[in-house]
Specification:
Chain A: This is Phosphate transport system permease protein. The complex is a heterodimer of chains A (339) and B (292). Chain A is an all-alpha fold. Chain A contains 12 helices and no strands. Chain A has 2 domains: 59 residues, no CATH class; 249 residues, MetI-like fold (Orthogonal Bundle), CATH 1.10.3720. In chain A, α4 packs antiparallel against α9 and α11 runs antiparallel to α12. The longest helix of chain A is centred in the first third of the chain and has 48 residues. The longest helix of chain B has 14 residues. Chain B is built from 10 helices and 10 strands. The N and C termini of chain B lie far apart (42 Å). Chain B has a domain of 169 residues: P-loop containing nucleotide triphosphate hydrolases (Rossmann fold, 3-Layer(aba) Sandwich). Chain B has a 10-stranded mixed beta sheet, with helices on both faces. In chain B, β4 and β5 form a beta hairpin. In chain B, α6 runs parallel beside α7. Chain B has 292 residues and is of the alpha/beta class. Classes of the chains: A mainly alpha (339), B alpha/beta (292).
Chain lengths: 339, 292
């Protein structure tokens, strides 16, 4: 019966049935294939959609929770929320927090990125293989340390130890507003926090950069070497341009972590709500995440809502930073080497 | 000063076979693009402990095209890469023997491989312009590496001269700021040649420069090779025997006895002789397609 069906169908193409109709056994495998294909497509699509839904849900939740604070006047919040005393509006409360968050993360990034690129280049292009893998392993281990441990170490070990260094820095470079002295003792200041944050984001930036550097096409490296480039010149002409977008992505991953880091900041920093660039003075800045963690226990419902509004701001900052980095990466796409 | 070797080559100084070779080999010290002769003696090439190429002795004449042919894996590309010390870039790779350029051993203790590579340029099998650089920046890449402070007008002149020498100027003169990777394969390869000759090397090595190109681009490169041999010593590795016959003055045939045994230079002679009356049976078999 199947053979006759196949025979009769052979001369008549039957366009509406599609090409996979004629031979039954073959159609079976194709159908199974298509079924799996379809299932996988649905799985992939739903995974992708889920992330968008989760993101939208977080944004919606933050907006919903912070709505009371967003719609109340500053004096109204000040009358009901203890930690809001002395603030005229939500913006005047939020501003220094956003400033402190960005400052801490930016300094951390400025410290960590060059260091991470250096380590990544050393492990990918300079170190003997065994040392490189050992070093990579140690760096990865840094990522496994809980942030509360970093906080304890920062507050109990680093802050007292590094105080003389900060004192020296403020003596020598005090004319730069960033390093205005005298350095606080103990050094529960933003620079100490940023240093700890830098150590915390070092592993992710290093690991991603290293992978990108390792993917530099041998062809491009050899092209540079054949032109008479030294190893550093080869890295400058072939490796770094190729890895540029990857390094930016890596730095943004690190920045995301630095922006949101809570415990280490809570435990180290002596907080304050000012727009101060002084990295060595205590009681000047605070970050959003740390502020939420500190104020959360004593917050009433409007206080909660105010904190949620700061959380919403952090959410927006992170998103803007990520979009900005995408833009930076995509700006010179035709030179990226992807084609 | 250059000691004569075994005698597998004709005497270099009296330049009998080819009219293209001037009778005075080192006349113009002021000419930066002076072609130079290379003498290779008893060269053994290793990857780690593995002997890849054994006992190569040959002379490469200035202002001529020398082609290497042979089956895949016979070590001709490996040998080519030893001529500008690119072989040692591979971890574990090493070379024993001597490669002398006008009497100076390129593997001497006081020779910097970076300096060697600046004098002996290389073009690779696949076009490899730097993807993050424009056409102009690609041409200037080598010059910039030399840390030469080069004025804007000099740079523009150099770009034009190099691209013109590579027969590419007319095609790209209106888009010098566009990425080099946006050109066609053949154009990219000519861009790589322009990049290599922009630093005025003395020797140009080409590792199967046409194997990734279509016939028309191949023809363009072959014409270019014929042009360039006026100023440069050119060594080309090719899988294409017709190409070797078309462009080269001398041809070397590399062969390998079997997997795991080292490649050897079987025979080297004037190209006409190699393709008409080779001395070795293996050469004849390979050239006539009766290989294996």
């Amino acid at each position: 019966m199947t053979t006759t069906a196949a025979d009769t169908r052979a001369p008549s193409p039957a366009p509406s049935n599609g090409p996979d109709r004629p031979r039954p056994p073959r159609r079976r495998t194709r159908a199974a294939d298509r079924g799996f294909n379809r299932a996988f497509r649905y799985l992939a699509t739903s995974a992708g959609t889920l992330i968008l839904i989760a993101l939208a849900a977080v944004a919606g939740f933050l907006l919903w929770q912070s709505w009371p604070a967003l719609t109340s006047s500053g004096s109204e919040i000040a009358s009901k929320v203890s930690f809001f005393q002395g603030q005229s509006s939500l913006a005047s409360y939020l501003g220094p927090l956003i400033f402190g968050t960005l400052l801490a993360a930016a300094v951390a990034l400025a410290v960590a990125t060059p260091l991470a690129i250096g380590i990544a280049l050393f492990t990918s292009h300079y170190a003997p293989r065994r040392l490189a893998s050992l070093l990579g392993w140690v760096i990865d281990l840094l990522a496994a340390i809980p942030s509360v441990v970093y906080g304890l170490w920062g507050a109990l070990v680093l802050a007292p130890t590094i105080q003389p260094v900060w004192q020296w820095v403020s003596n020598v470079l005090g004319w730069i507003p960033l390093f205005k002295g005298p350095a606080a003792d103990p050094a529960r200041v933003l620079l100490t926090v940023s240093l700890v944050l830098a150590v915390m984001i070092l592993p992710i930036i290093t690991a991603v950069s290293r992978e990108v550097f390792l993917q530099t096409p041998k062809l491009h490296e050899e092209a540079a070497l054949a032109l008479g480039a030294t190893r550093w010149e080869m890295i400058r002409t072939a490796v770094l341009p190729f890895g540029r977008s990857g390094v930016v992505s890596a730095a943004m991953l690190g920045l995301g972590r630095a922006l949101g880091e809570t415990m280490a900041v809570v435990m180290i920093l002596s907080p304050g709500l000012t727009y101060s660039f002084a990295l060595l003075l205590a009681g000047k800045q605070q970050t959003i995440a740390a502020n939420i963690a500190l104020k959360y226990p004593e917050a009433n419902s409007l206080g909660m809502s105010t904190l949620m509004a700061t959380g919403l701001a952090l959410f927006v900052i992170t998103m803007v930073v990520n979009m900005a980095s995408r833009w930076v990466v995509g700006r010179r796409k035709e030179f990226s080497g992807a084609n | 000063m250059s000691t004569p070797d075994g005698g597998t080559r004709p005497a270099p100084t009296d330049s009998g076979p080819r009219p293209s070779t001037p009778t005075t080999p080192t006349p113009k010290k002021d000419d930066p693009a002076m072609a130079q002769r290379i003498d290779v003696k008893d060269l053994n090439i290793y990857y780690g402990d593995f002997l890849a190429v054994e006992g190569v002795t040959m002379t490469i004449e200035p202002r001529s095209v020398t082609a290497f042919i042979g089956p895949s894996g016979c070590g001709k590309s490996t040998f080519l890469r030893t001529l500008n010390r690119m072989h040692e870039v591979i971890p574990g790779a090493s070379v024993h023997g001597s490669v002398e350029m006008e009497g100076v051993d390129l593997y001497g203790a006081d020779i910097d491989p970076v300096a060697v590579r600046r004098q002996i340029g290389m073009v690779f099998q696949r076009p490899n312009p730097f993807p993050t650089m424009s056409i102009e920046e690609n041409v200037l890449a080598g010059v910039r590496l030399l840390n030469k402070k080069i004025s804007k007008s000099d740079a523009a002149d150099l770009v034009e001269a190099s691209l013109a020498s590579a027969n590419l100027w007319n095609e790209v003169k209106d888009r010098l700021q566009k990425p080099g990777a946006g050109l066609s394969g053949g154009q990219q390869q000519r861009l790589c040649i322009a990049r290599a000759i922009a630093v005025k090397p003395q020797v140009l090595l080409m590792d199967e420069p046409c194997s990734a190109l279509d016939p028309i681009s191949t023809l363009a490169i072959e014409d270019l090779i014929t042009e360039l041999k006026k100023d440069y010593t050119i060594v080309i590795v090719t899988h294409n025997m017709q190409q070797a016959a078309r462009v080269s003055d001398r041809t070397g045939f590399f062969n390998i006895a079997g997997t795991g045994s080292p490649g050897k230079l079987i025979e080297m002679d004037d190209t006409g002789t190699m393709f008409s009356t080779p001395k070795e049976k293996a050469t004849e078999d390979y050239i006539s397609g009766r290989f294996g």
